[in-house]
Amino acid sequence: GESVGLHLPTLSVQEGDNSIINCAYSNSASDYFIWYKQESGKGPQFIIDIRSNMDKRQGQRVTVLLNKTVKHLSLQIAATQPGDSAVYFCAENLGDYKLSFGAGTTVTVRA
Amino acid sequence: NAGVTQTPKFQVLKTGQSMTLQCAQDMNHEYMSWYRQDPGMGLRLIHYSVGAGITDQGEVPNGYNVSRSTTEDFPLRLLSAAPSQTSVYFCASSYTRQGRGSGANVLTFGAGSRLTVL
After folding, report:
1. Contacts of B99 in chain A (CB under 8 A)
2. CB contact under 8 A, A103 and B41
3. B5 to chain A, minimum CA–CA distance in Å?
4. Given 3-state DSSP classes, what are the helix, strand and coil percentages for chain B, each rounded to the nearest 5?
5. Cα–Cα distance between A50 and A62 in angstroms, integer?
6. Strand spans (E) along B38-112
7. What mean pLDDT value characterizes chain B?
8. pLDDT tens for residues A25-53?
9. Which pick of A12, A98, B85, B91 has the fewest CB atoms within 10 Å?
10. Among the listed ranges B44-53, B74-83, B104-113, which one has the minimum average pLDDT value?
């Protein structure tokens, strides 16, 4: 079936650099996407969302980009900090009260 | 604000035992759901509820039961635990139903319950 997935399971980034986390989706009918951050031992936390009528949305130090042509979603974190170390999930709203999550990317920030 | 509270945080069961994972939210959210998280597989929806007295199945409902007698509580029951149910379980809630394209679909998650079935 169609699902949301992430390109890479792990990402190592130098503190202060920008991070880019990628996500590919296959359901062309999806019109809403969410990024969650999960720190060790905690539940996922909302970071940012984007609707399909947008290409880009910015938050505090984070930007989500949506390319519907190639069905690709990315999360950019500016000036990555040690506190950004976590697992990042993209999620696709399938409607009918269901959210489909990707497998996640583990981001490790090097000092 | 407590948000979403899950108990217990850790539990070890023997195969065939039953137990209930508790979930409570104090945000007056209509929608509540249970996910399980396994290594390399993200989160998979078990059951969900769009309001008191209403429940429905998610992606992986087999072996689990739920009920929603109040807006605040959404317990998850394992009737006869199996090793395949070893996982981390998350309860989540949101303001409104999970319709398409709505910002209200953002889920608030609990801290998780780690279950091991021997």
Report:
1. 95
2. yes
3. 11
4. 5, 50, 45
5. 12
6. 43-51, 54-57, 64-66, 76-78, 87-94, 108-109
7. 91
8. 878 888 889 999 999 999 999 999 999 99
9. A12
10. B104-113
